[in-house]
Write a structure and sequence with these properties.
about 15% strand, Trna Endonuclease, Chain: A, domain 1, alpha+beta
Amino acid sequence: MSEFQEQKTLIAWFRAQYPQYEKCIRLSLNGINLPPGKTAAIMINQMKSQGMVKSESDLFFAIPNMEYHGLFIEMKDFEKKATPEQQKYLDFMQSLQYEAAVCVGAEAAKEVITNYMKTSLIAKPIPLDS
């Protein structure tokens, strides 16, 4: 499966497993496929000016637990590794008391999330209006 498909599978699983936290998932814009040419350059500049950060992890779960403020996951398929810049981003987030991991495939990410959620601080968050 591609990284896109692995991540899609993971998000579907997370939403089914932890429906009370479905609004706590954040997706980085770094992995979005843009149209080629001038349009892409314009869109990238717009996204950067609005806060997109280079090498940001693919996913952020804004859920504190007993040890960390939240969880960053860099998704990879079985043919790719995290770049040095991506690893540096993860290390920086860990220095700020966030959990951060590179996960090769959805199954690895599910394991990281399951272990992380065992010590979640918020058992029943106040639901947002849909």
